[in-house]
Amino acid sequence: MLELDGVTAAYDSTPILRDVDLSVEEGEIVGVMGKNGVGKTTLMKTIIGLLEPSDGTISYAGADVTDAPADERARAGMGYIPQGRDVFPKLTVEQNVRMGETVNADSEETLYDDIYGYFPVLEERADQQAGTLSGGQQQMLAIARALVSNPDLLLLDEPSEGIQPSIVDQISDDMQAINEDLGTTILFVEQNLGVIREMADRCYAMERGEIVDEVGPQKLTDEEAIADFLAV
Amino acid sequence: MVNGLNLLFQFLDSFAFIVLAAAGLAIIFGIMGVINLAHGEFIMVGAYATTLANIRGGLPLPVAMLVGVAVTAVFGLVVERVVISGTVPNALSQRFLGRKVIEPLYDRLADSMVATWGLSLIMVQGVRIVLGNSLDQIGTPLGNIAYSGFSYSTYRVLLSVVALGVLALTYYVFTRTEYGMRARATIQDEDTARALGVDTERTYMTTFAIGSGLAGLTGALYAPTITMVPGLGSSFLVEAFVAVVVGGPSVVLGTTLAGGLLGAINAAVTNLFGTFFGRIALLVTAIVMIRFLPDGITGFVETVRERRQEGA
């Protein structure tokens, strides 16, 4: 469904991507593991189209989207949840969700009524300004906003960053439920290994802008393989 | 009694003038981060188009005014594509030089000021060359309201009603329509808006056209009351800037409050000491505001609100 082939990208002070090959199959939850500053966010921004790769190709759903702007990729079915949530602080919770609904993807499809089933707390706070929510709630709102148009691929940038562990667990459960119920393919980057093991079917490891290892589904539960993986 | 009425009408008149002069500028500044120093010349385009359509084209005044608005909005669209976003020159240079030559002027305050100032010079001189030093003027329609010793132009009273209408409509557009939501989302976080599928280019284009259309409306409405010279825009620009500085970042609320405050100051001082001192009072107010409330009235309100939320 998503295929990166030799992607190289850099922009001002953002960390560099070097010759990244990566693929995600339909229905999978794929994690990319890496420490701060290895280029995880650069990777996500390049995939959604906020950064232009200087080399390589990105194909999505069988089409080459390397030169397509972000809004076009969003309408083609990619949903993006930026690092640090980035909700629109001065719009209400409901308006934030509606933003995702009105513009994401060309279809008429909306999951507006279903979304609050996953995140009931957002319904209680529908009229509140999004900037006043807690970190965990903002993360849920950012997920809801991306999810409401029923994207085929969700890109999730460090869902656990700056959020209480109990909420992190809840969010990874929610993501798995969403993957199961809606068939949404999920690609996420994370430095918290617990979250990766909890959520991912498959995982890449990233270091200094390069993909250095890949761990398959059977091995993600295997302690020894994980230890090897961590040693990279 | 007569003096009281005089003061009231003077206030309505100043309020309408400030709000109408500032609305287009405030929208373009608030949403795109572009300071349009050619704003006064956009008003001039509206006034000239209206006058030409009415006097030379023979169209009835209300229709001529709509022509003025439409011409200015389309002109604004062209300016946005050529000067502000650089899309047209970039497409050309991409074709002939193989690279882009212009970075868009969004959120580049100083750069956008220089570019639009240059544009304003070209516009004033261009109009002077093509149409001469002045145009015939449309007479002020609708006559006067008279009450014992007091008399005031009905048309100018109508203008204050229109000013309120413009504020209400702007509020509606930016809070209740899909375009308004996209525009606000784009200001708050452009990247995220794009990643959600908002065509931010089109949002900017629409915004600039709306702001220009409002400038055109101001020109059209004031065309019957002012002398038609190519430099007529400068008398609007000062008031518009003072209003944006005093009002702060919130487009509708800021413009309303600034219009109210400055209108009151201007009316009172003008009534006591004459027009000249009325304008000086506006500038003094702007200087005092910049010193004590650098983010304008709404910026101050915002800071207080944030502080209170943090405390809660």
UniProtKB/TrEMBL annotation, chain A:
Q: Which UniProt keywords apply?
A: Amino-acid transport, ATP-binding, Nucleotide-binding, Transport
Annotated GO MF terms:
ATP binding; ATP hydrolysis activity; branched-chain amino acid transmembrane transporter activity
- Could you confirm whether the keyword tRNA processing appears in this record? no
Q: Keyword Cell division on this protein?
A: no
Q: Record's Gene3D superfamilies?
A: P-loop containing nucleotide triphosphate hydrolases
Name one process (GO BP) from the record: L-amino acid transport
**Residue ranges of the ABC transporter domain?**
2-230
Family annotation (InterPro entries): AAA+_ATPase, ABC_transporter-like_ATP-bd, ABC_transporter-like_CS, BCAA_Transport_ATP-bd_LivF, P-loop_NTPase
- Show the PROSITE patterns listed in the entry: ABC_TRANSPORTER_1, ABC_TRANSPORTER_2
Q: One Pfam family of this protein, by short name?
A: ABC_tran
Q: Which domain of life is it from?
A: Archaea
The similarity comment for this entry is: Belongs to the ABC transporter superfamily.
Q: Which PANTHER family match?
A: HIGH-AFFINITY BRANCHED-CHAIN AMINO ACID TRANSPORT ATP-BINDING PROTEIN (PTHR43820:SF5), HIGH-AFFINITY BRANCHED-CHAIN AMINO ACID TRANSPORT ATP-BINDING PROTEIN LIVF (PTHR43820)
Name of this chain's protein: ABC transporter ATP-binding protein
Organism listed in the record? Haloarcula rubra
Ranked from the top, the taxonomy reads: Archaea, Methanobacteriati, Methanobacteriota, Stenosarchaea group, Halobacteria
TrEMBL record, chain B:
Q: Which GO terms describe its cellular component?
A: plasma membrane
Q: Which GO MF term does the entry hold, naming one?
A: transmembrane transporter activity
Print the keywords alphabetically.
Amino-acid transport, Cell membrane, Membrane, Transmembrane, Transmembrane helix, Transport
Return any one Pfam family short name: BPD_transp_2
Concerning PANTHER family, the annotation shows: ABC TRANSPORTER PERMEASE PROTEIN (PTHR11795:SF447), BRANCHED-CHAIN AMINO ACID TRANSPORT SYSTEM PERMEASE PROTEIN LIVH (PTHR11795)
Q: Which family does it belong to?
A: Belongs to the binding-protein-dependent transport system permease family. LivHM subfamily.
- Annotated NCBIfam families: urea_t_UrtB_arc
Listed name of the protein: Urea ABC transporter, permease protein UrtB
Q: Which organism is it from?
A: Haloarcula rubra
